[in-house]
């Protein structure tokens, strides 16, 4: 009786152990499936969030490009609307001349000689900048606006006269345009007019006041000095129409062909200068050797 009861108890215990173990396995599998489902759900949600972020970023990148494409159109409109304003303003002077060429020192080899380019007043004016050309036009129009004033252009200068009396001369000293007037330089000492005395030069003995026109302000001051000259002579201004004396830039070779620049040659060891085979005045300017046996006289007054 006892043995039967023990065996039954053992079988019942075994049935309970197997059932408990199966239940534990079942629950473990169940929780594992839940965990896997959670992981898959998390992965999917992260992937969808990443895709959504990429889709959200794409329009942000496109917006600047669209605005950049539109921006030039907005920039063009003001430029086009501003263009008629510039077109309505008539040009006061001809277009700016091109950049000046470097002066050719020697065109051909001349061993043992001196080559000098003698530029006329007109050539220097042609090769000057627009500021000088515009100032020259203003001063010439001012001088010729007075009654009975006439001008004469020579190689080195332009002279303005009333009858036989000189009222002004224009000439270059180096690259600077200068005006010579029949005024006493000492009367303008310690004034805004920085004048010089040119009475030692025979060519300017009757126009001893030298005024260098270095900037636009000096051109205005020169006009005031010319007004004083004309006031002393009692000259009256007329209603003469202003003329345009602007001369476009030309290179050295073009000026030589037109006869506005002379090539003077001085043989080594000689004191005479020859132009086209003719002897001219003596020149004591110190020559500069630019190559072995080739010298150049600086073209300055």
Give a structural overview:
This protein has 5 helices and 12 strands. Helix content is 44%, strand content 21%. It is of the alpha+beta class and 301 residues long. The longest helix has 87 residues, at 2-88.
Number of domains: 2
Report Rg: 48 Å
Overall average residue pLDDT: 75
Main pleated sheet: 6 strands, antiparallel
Q: What is the SS-derived class?
A: alpha+beta
Strand content: 15-25%
Q: In angstroms, what separates the terminal alpha carbons?
A: 154 Å
Quick structural overview:
Helix content is 44%, strand content 21%. With 301 residues, it is of the alpha+beta class. The chain folds into 2 domains: 1-81; 113-296, no CATH class.
Write the topology of this structure.
Blueprint: H1 2-88, E1 113-119, H2 121-126, H3 130-144, E2 149-153, E3 157-162, E4 165-173, E5 176-181, E6 196-197, E7 209-212, H4 216-233, H5 252-257, E8 261-267, E9 272-275, E10 278-282, E11 288-291, E12 294-296
Parallel strand pairs: 1-12
Antiparallel strand pairs: 1-8, 2-3, 3-4, 4-5, 5-7, 6-7, 9-10, 11-12
Note the main attributes of this structure.
alpha+beta, rod-shaped, six-stranded antiparallel sheet, 301 residues, disordered C terminus, four-stranded mixed sheet
């Amino acid at each position: 009786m006892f043995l039967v009861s023990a065996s039954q108890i053992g079988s019942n215990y075994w049935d309970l152990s197997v059932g408990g173990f199966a239940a534990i396995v079942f629950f473990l599998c169940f929780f594992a499936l839940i965990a896997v489902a959670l992981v898959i759900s998390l992965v999917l949600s992260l992937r969808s969030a990443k895709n959504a972020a990429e889709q959200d970023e794409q329009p942000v990148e496109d917006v600047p490009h669209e605005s950049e494409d539109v921006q030039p159109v907005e920039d063009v409109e003001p430029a086009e609307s501003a263009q008629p304003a510039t077109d309505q303003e008539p040009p006061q002077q001809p277009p700016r001349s091109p950049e000046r060429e470097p002066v050719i020192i020697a065109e051909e080899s001349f061993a043992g000689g001196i080559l000098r380019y003698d530029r006329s007043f007109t050539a220097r004016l042609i090769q000057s900048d627009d500021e000088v050309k515009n100032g020259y036009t203003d001063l010439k129009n001012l001088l010729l606006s007075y009654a009975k004033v006439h001008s004469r252009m020579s190689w080195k200068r332009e002279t303005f006269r009333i009858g036989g009396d000189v009222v002004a001369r224009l000439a270059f000293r180096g690259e600077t345009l200068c005006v010579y007037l029949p005024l006493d330089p000492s009367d303008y000492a310690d004034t805004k007019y920085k004048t010089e005395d040119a009475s030692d030069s025979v060519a300017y003995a009757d126009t001893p006041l030298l005024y260098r026109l270095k900037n636009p302000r000096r051109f205005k001051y020169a006009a005031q000095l010319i007004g004083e000259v004309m006031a002393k002579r009692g000259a009256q201004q007329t209603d003469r129409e202003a003329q345009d004396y602007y001369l476009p830039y030309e290179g050295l070779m073009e000026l030589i062909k037109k006869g506005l620049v002379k090539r003077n040659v001085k043989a080594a060891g000689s004191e005479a200068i020859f132009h086209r085979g003719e002897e001219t005045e003596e020149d004591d300017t110190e020559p500069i050797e630019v190559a072995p046996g080739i010298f150049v006289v600086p073209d300055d007054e």
